[in-house]
Please model this.
Amino acid sequence: MDKGLIGGSTVLMLLSLLQEKDYYGYEIIKEIEQRSNRIFQFKEGTVYPVLHRMESQGLVKSYKDKAETGKERKYYKITTKGKTQLAKEQKQWNEFTVSVAKVLGGVGYACP
Model:
């Protein structure tokens, strides 16, 4: 998959997952991989810098807790600001995908 296509949607995917529950970094990577049928296979060197940037922007907050295995992990939690950003990102994504569908298949092809 083209990294340019993925890069523009990484924050959207991460915020969307974190809206469901708190995740630790590696768990996020595996969840995205599983949900995308292995189309998205992020490396730790890709996800962690994005999470750190999102944290510095106030979109997520991190905390340490023990995982089911008993090992201490750094979890990420979406903030109120992150939820607002997620709504904005979802709106932009919907406009983008509808517009691309219209260009690719004509006006009658895309859903409103």
User: Anything to note?
Assistant: The chain has a mean pLDDT of 88. The first helix runs from residue 3 to 7.
